[in-house]
Write a structure and sequence with these properties.
554 residues; six-stranded parallel sheet; binds iron/sulfur cluster
Length: 554
C-alpha cells in the first residue's frame, strides 16, 4: 500500500555577512543567490515517487504559513553558515505542529545542536534514507539514522530533482562528480565527512545529469562542487574527453568551474583536458605563504612546489584561479601579513577568500585543540547575533600568537588586498596571463552572464562604487585593447568586487571592534602589543606600511 506524504523541503538562510553570498553581483544579472541547494534536490530524488515535494529556498523566496500548513513533514538540510536559521526553522515547523527531519553537513558534524528535530539523518543520505522512509511509513515519529562513514557508493546516487529548482534564481547550478579528498589538511572537515578515498560517479551518470540540466533548458555556468575535482585523476581522465565531446555535440551550452588541489598544475595533460572541456575557473586552497605553517597544518602538497608558478601555469590554460587563505595558525611569524600580501600580488589572484582560522567541528584541528585545552566553549555554535563567518568569528580557540597581533595582521591583509587599486592591478596582470586565445568567446543564448560582459556592466559597477571608477576603468580599457578575449572574465571579477569591496570593509570594522574590545579587556597586554607593532615598524622588521600600523593603533 502506498501512503501519500506531503514533504516541504526548506533550505535555511545563510548568515547575511558571508564572503560567499555575492548579493550585489547577483542583482547585477537579475539572480537572487549564487548557488542552488544541490544536497536537498538530491535527497528529494531518494524519496518515494508517490510523495509530493515542495522546495522553498529561504535565500531566494519566502516561506509562508500556507507552505507549512500544507506539509505532513518538513525536511531541512544545511551547513554551519546556515545554523541560526536552521534551528529557528525547526521551532517554526513545530509551532505549526509539523514533524521535522534534518540532515546535511552541520547536522552530521554537530548532531547535539539539532536534538529538537524529530528525525536526524547523520552522514551521507543515500544509504539511510530508505530506513527513514520505512520508519515514517510504519508510523514512527522519531528516530536517528546514522550512515556508515565513507561507504556510500556514489554510482548509486540518484539524479538530482532539477525540476524543483527555479533556474533563473541562481548565478550557477552545481553538479557533483566525486566526494572525498586524498589529502590530510588538519583544519578540513571534508575528509571527516566524506573520507580520504575519493569516490566518483560514472561518466554516463554525470553526463546524464548534465543532459537533464540541458533538457530543463538551463544554459550557462555549471560548478562541479566536488571536494577536490582531481581527487581521483584516473577516473577523471576518462570523463574529460567525453565531456568535451558532449559539449561539442550541443554547441557548448555550459562553462564549468570547480575546486581542486594545487597539484593540478603538475599535470599538463589534465589541464589541457580541462581546457578542452570548457573549464574557466578553479578554486584552490593555498592557505599560507609560509612553508613551516603549511607543514604544521598538514598541507604538505602545497610545500613541494613554487605555488606562484603553478597558478600562472593554470592561467596559461585559460582558467583563472580564486583561492582561500587563512590567518591564525600556531607557527605564523610576525612577518606573515606582508608575506601574504606579497604572495597574493605575485600570483595575481583577484578573488582571495582570506579568513581567520576557525576550528570546525569534528576536525583533527578541533581534536588537537581540545586535547590542548585551547578550544573555546560553544566553538561549534553560530549565534544569531554574531551573524558572521570565519572572516569575523575566527579564531574560536586560544591562539599561540597574541590574538591582537593576529587580528592586526589580518586587517592589514584585507585592507591591502581589497583596496580598489590593488584589486584592479591584479585584474590587469591576470589579463596579461589569461590565455583565452583559442577559446570560444560567445556564451550560449539563455546564459544570464550575457548581461554582464560589456561596458554597461562596468558603468553599473562604477555607479554603485564610485571609489573604483579610476582603477577599474583603466583596467577595462587596457584589457579591451590588449586581451579582448579575456574581457568577459575580467568584468565578471569586477562584478564580484561589488560584494567583496563592501564586505571587506564590514569585516575590517568588525575586526576593529574586536581589537578595541581586547584593548579594553587587557589594557596592559594591548599597550605592549601596540608598542611592539610600532617598534617593528620602526625597525623595518614588519613591512606593514606606517598607514596600516597607525590605523590599527589609532
Ligand atoms: S586539499 Fe582541500 S579538501 Fe583536501 S584535505 Fe585539504 S582542505 Fe580538505
Amino acid at each position: 500500500m502506498t501512503i501519500p506524504c506531503r514533504v516541504l523541503m526548506v533550505y535555511p538562510k545563510f548568515i547575511p555577512n558571508s564572503f560567499w553570498n555575492y548579493t550585489e553581483a547577483c542583482e547585477l544579472v537579475g539572480a537572487k543567490y549564487p548557488a542552488a541547494p544541490l544536497g536537498l534536490i538530491t535527497v528529494a530524488a531518494m524519496l518515494p515517487k508517490h510523495w509530493d515535494i515542495r522546495l522553498v529556498n529561504r535565500n531566494t523566496e519566502p516561506l509562508t504559513d500556507a507552505d507549512l500548513d500544507w506539509a505532513d513533514l518538513v525536511m531541512i538540510g544545511g551547513m554551519l553558515n546556515q545554523q541560526p536559521d536552521f534551528i529557528y526553522l525547526i521551532d517554526l515547523a513545530h509551532l505549526h505542529g509539523k514533524p521535522v527531519c534534518v540532515g546535511g553537513p552541520d547536522v552530521s558534524s554537530s548532531p547535539h545542536l539539532y536534538a529538537d528535530a524529530d528525525f536526524q539523518v547523520i552522514g551521507e543520505a543515500e544509504q539511510i534514507m530508505v530506513h527513514f522512509i520505512a520508519a515514517w511509513e510504519s508510523g514512527e515519529r522519531k528516530g536517528v539514522f546514522i550512515a556508515e562513514k565513507f561507504k556510500i557508493d556514489v554510482t548509486q546516487s540518484p539524479m538530482p530533482r532539477y525540476d524543483l529548482i527555479k533556474f533563473d534564481h541562481y548565478l550557477f547550478i552545481g553538479v557533483q562528480y566525486s566526494r572525498g579528498c586524498p589529502f590530510t589538511c588538519e583544519f578540513c572537515d571534508i575528509i571527516e565527512l566524506y573520507g580520504r578515498v575519493p569516490r566518483t560517479k560514472t561518466n554516463d551518470q554525470i553526463l546524464a545529469e548534465l543532459q537533464a540540466l540541458y533538457d530543463h533548458g538551463y544554459r550557462g555556468h555549471v560548478d562541479f562542487v566536488d571536494d577536490n575535482f582531481i581527487g581521483n585523476k584516473k577516473n577523471l581522465r576518462t570523463l574529460l574527453p567525453r565531456l568535451k565531446a558532449w559539449l561539442e555535440e550541443r554547441d557548448y551550452p555550459f562553462e564549468f568551474s570547480t575546486e581542486a588541489s594545487i597539484n593540478i598544475a603538475d599535470d599538463d595533460e589534465l589541464l589541457q583536458a580541462m581546457k578542452d572541456a570548457n573549464f574557466f575557473a578553479i578554486f584552490v586552497g593555498i592557505e599560507s605563504p609560509d612553508p613551516e605553517t603549511l607543514v604544521q597544518m598538514k598541507k604538505k602538497q602545497n610545500t613541494r612546489r613554487n605555488i606562484a608558478e603553478c597558478i600562472h601555469k593554470i592561467y596559461g590554460y585559460g582558467m583563472f584561479v580564486t583561492a582561500g587563505f587563512i590567518v591564525g595558525f600556531d607557527t605564523e611569524k610576525v612577518s606573515m601579513g606582508q608575506a601574504m600580501i606579497d604572495f597574493i600580488e605575485e600570483t595575481n589572484i583577484p578573488v582571495c577568500m582570506v579568513g581567520l582560522l576557525y576550528a570546525l567541528p569534528g576536525t583533527q584541528l578541533t581534536r588537537r585543540l581540545t586535547k590542548e585545552g585551547r578550544l573555546h566553549k560553544g566553538h561549534d555554535l553560530m549565534k544569531v547575533e554574531q551573524a558572521g563567518d570565519q572572516c569575523t568569528l575566527g579564531c574560536n580557540f586560544d591562539t599561540k600568537r597574541p590574538l591582537r597581533d593576529i587580528l592586526v595582521d589580518y586587517k592589514a591583509v584585507l585592507r591591502h588586498v581589497f583596496s580598489p587599486t590593488a584589486y584592479a592591478g591584479r585584474l590587469s596582470r591576470l589579463a596579461v596571463k589569461l590565455d583565452r586565445s583559442d577559446r570560444r568567446r560567445d556564451l550560449p543564448d539563455g546564459d544570464m552572464r550575457k548581461r554582464l560582459g560589456g561596458i554597461d556592466s562596468v558603468h553599473g559597477i562604477m555607479r554603485a562604487l564610485p571609489e573604483v571608477r579610476e582603477p577599474f576603468w583603466k583596467t577595462f580599457v587596457e584589457v579591451a585593447k590588449t586581451n579582448p578575449a579575456a574581457l568577459r572574465y575580467i568584468v565578471m571579477l569586477m562584478a564580484l568586487y561589488m560584494h567583496l569591496g563592501p564586505f571587506s570593509k564590514r569585516v575590517i570594522s568588525e575586526i576593529d571592534r574586536r581589537i578595541a574590545e581586547l584593548d579594553g579587556m587587557h589594557p596592559v597586554r594591548a599597550t605592549a602589543s601596540s608598542a611592539r607593532a610600532r617598534s617593528l615598524d620602526a625597525t623595518g622588521n614588519n613591512h606593514l606600511s606606517n598607514e596600516q600600523v597607525s590605523a590599527v593603533n589609532s
